[in-house]
Amino acid sequence: MPVTTTVEALYASPAFLYFITAILGLCIGSFLNVVVYRLPLTLQKEWQSDCCSLLEIEPPEDNSRHKVFNLLFPNSHCPHCDHNIRLWENIPVLSYLILKGKCSGCSQAISLRYPLVEFATGLLSVLVVYLMGFTLQSGLALVLTWALISLTLIDFDTQLLPDNITLPLLWLGLIANYYGVYTSLENALWGAIAGYLSLWSIFWLFKLITGKEGMGYGDFKLLAALGAWMGWQALPQIIILSSFVGAAIGIGGILVMGRDKNLPIPFGPYLAIAGWIALLWGEDISLWYLQFSGLV
């Protein structure tokens, strides 16, 4: 189908647009599963190699089955039996159902998180396009959504927010707002600066008072990136929303899942969720608050 015809069809048929977005979101969700698992391991190997080089010592022998390990290589495989995942076994969500949640090679259970991430990515992608339409804003918002999903899961797993994702996200927000996609470049620039410095200041104040580190530098960079996308005006709302999200998830984890309340909880996922909510419904939330408080 010619490109112009496809674009016209997407404009004319919202149902077709949502279908294409859902398929794209499911496929991206499958890739995000790879990113969430492999990127921290890749970074760990790089850091280990850099440390050995700095100390001028031999790196430990690599006994892993795959000498080349990154986001592209090796092919997807079962971690238990090393069975290469065939094309029909890698269809988002559907393959999990066909295989009944088990590896076809060794019958070991496949984590339910894989299809859930794929489904959630597809669902959130459709929601973005439903609210924003077939626009440049929605296209960039999809990129932000996918990045925030990966950051949320990586931070939950490892308490890391990789620069490989946060810094490109910051620059993309500034570039987008150079053209005024979400806000002015001036607002975006000061949003990035204020986002970083606000959490940086809290970090050092908390450390001076308690002698402990309450958050990581990745949190500063993530809030800076969100400020670059939405402007400095959105930062108070994002911080307040992240507190509510964190309280809800934290209390829910303790009451429902029996999570140890003394375990450290990463702040990045709450920032990511709050930032995504602010991007889609920030103006509505602000208007509701002003009406509720009687200011308008």
Quick structural gist:
The chain has 296 residues and is mainly alpha-helical. It has helices spanning 3-12, 14-55, 94-98, 113-132, 136-158, 163-178, 185-210, 217-230, 235-256, 268-292.
Describe the structure.
By secondary structure, the protein is mainly α. Helices cover 69% and strands 0% of the residues. It is built from ten helices and no strands. The chain has helices spanning 3-12, 14-55, 94-98, 113-132, 136-158, 163-178, 185-210, 217-230, 235-256, 268-292. Helix 1 (3-12) crosses helix 2 (14-55), helix 2 (14-55) crosses helix 4 (113-132) and helix 7 (185-210) runs antiparallel to helix 8.
Give the percentage of residues in beta strands.
Answer: under 5%
Describe the global form. Answer: globular
Distance between the termini: 50 Å
Unreliably modeled segments: none
Number of strands: 0
Structural class: mainly alpha
Order of helices and strands: HHHHHHHHHH
The percent of residues in helical segments reads: 55-70%
Mean pLDDT, as a whole number?
88
Q: Could you describe the largest sheet, including whether it forms a barrel?
A: none
Seen as an oligomer or otherwise, the chain set is single chain
Question: Can you lay out the helices and strands and say which pair or pack?
Answer:
Elements: H1 3-12, H2 14-55, H3 94-98, H4 113-132, H5 136-158, H6 163-178, H7 185-210, H8 217-230, H9 235-256, H10 268-292
